[in-house]
Amino acid sequence: MSPSRRQLGTSLALTAIAGAAIGAGATWAARGRTAPPPCPTTPVQTASSGTPKLGCCHGEHETAAAKCPVHYEGEVLKIDDQARTRRLRQVLHDGLFVPWTETGRAPAPDEFARRLKIPQPEADRLLDELQACGESVGGGILRVPGSELVAVAWPLSNVPTGITVTVADGKPAFARCAIDALGVSAMLEKRTVVEATARDNGQRLRVVVDGARIVEAEPAEVVVVRGNGCDNMSFFSSRAAGDAWRKANDPGSTLLTLAEAVTRGARIFSKETQGL
Q1: How far apart are CA 146 and CA 106, in angstroms?
Q2: Which of 27, 193, 251, 256 could bond 260 through an S-S bridge, CB–CB 3.0 to 4.6 Å?
Q3: Is the pLDDT confidence value at 45 over 60?
Q4: pTM, two decimal places
Q5: For strand 150-153 and strand 70-73, is the pairing parallel, antiparallel, or unpaired?
């Protein structure tokens, strides 16, 4: 996904700490840059012993720092290791997104391992790699700081965002933002109901998406503002309302028709890339 996603929304991760007790459950800006990683995966030197020690609980089992197999050069995603990238995309789909949308929450690490039918140490290494990607390119996952639990795995969030996605035969799950929500159907190849409230007036919105196609939208005039950060990537009840908010609050943002937003979401979160 675009490096414009890479600005961490710390408020979401902090909220996740409070919500960790109710499920395994922040983001880089509108898909800008900033903020330190929430939990380092690289070893740090201890003053007393001089022995490298890993930075937090979810890295204690590592023998070497986890590394993401992709990076960005400008707006272009570069793959450093094709095999590892394919593997991470597969486990995102099979181990995280499918069970997440079935149950409505992020799977815990042991559930992730059981779903993939792999030993826990292997599952933990995969999650460490996905965390490294979340910290470096804004794809993969971000854990709750200081915890093994997943807070975000774009396009999904394990804490309330005001936007839910319900795939066919699944349960409602929170989406990270408007464009993320609209990309879930293409990623999982299932018809998806997106529900939210309009940022301008609180009106309930309902959009049914099938791949990159809008099946229905209520109200029909709904639009999306793609702003500075995922927290400012929201649904509005009409073009006039979205444009007024954009001009007053985020002049650098872009007003998208619903069709444009669905197309963008489907491109970012395709079945091939799984958002990574």
Answers
A1: 17
A2: 256
A3: no
A4: 0.79
A5: unpaired
